[in-house]
Amino acid sequence: xxxxxEVEGVVRQIRPVSIGKKIEAVAVSDxxxxxxxxxxxxxxxxxxxxxxxxRLTGAQIVRVERRSKYIYFTLRKDNEFLLVNHLGxxxxxxxxxxxxxxxxxxxxxxxxxxxxxxxxxxxxxxDIRRFGEMRVLQEExxxxxxxxxxxxxxxxxxxxxxLTMAESPKYKNKAIKEIIMDGQIISxxxxxxxxxxxxxxxxxxxxxxxxxSRKRKVELFESIVAILQESIRAGGSTISDYRxxxxxxxxxxxxxGMYGKKQCADCGTATKTLKIGxxxxxxxxTCQK
Length: 289
Hints:
N-terminal domain of MutM-like DNA repair proteins; 4-stranded antiparallel β-sheet; 8 helices; FPG_Glyclase; zinc-finger; EC 4.2.99.18; DNA-binding
């Protein structure tokens, strides 16, 4: 699943090619329409396909921002409103002149939403596994989970928020891996970067937060921030399906010390895997205590 660095990379690319442009036309796939007919909610949530098309057509793109792992498109028609997008497991935006220009067939075959911009170019959303989300909101609070997200990890309030939450009665006895993957505690840090930060700090992923000193918690948070920033500079991580809007892969996966590894890069010990917070957690039984 794309995490903060991957989403940040997409936003930084979409922003200059879309801001100020008008959405001249919107196309929605038959797959989405069929899901609506069957009472399901593939990708487009809480609005019918035709309603989605009508709402977006003619709107101007005013801002494109990232909040945690979400993309916020601020649109203006009669007034300003939001199109909020989560990439899910395999969602990807492509900026092309025609759909045939999307580089890989697996993405071309799973295009579900196409925005035709006033520049004549297309912003196409492809989602192979269809776990992505699109929500049309008048304001952020119309989807309450958005209001529960932790401060951005680069914000000055984020460290204190992390420490307060991690040391609270609700969380202090939970596994540290589960805590740092919780978007209400740290925004945008998922399994990949949690694994890397814990390996860098030599902390066992199942260690309870209460068994980690405050000094070490501060160092862990700083490590998470540093790894997220490094990944942004590297264009994110491509494990399977992440691509930027030009169809390019990230390169952060080439720098991993632990995620997806069979052997510890530091000591050579065979890695082990635990399930924590519903996710597979790879760690070194020798280095991480």
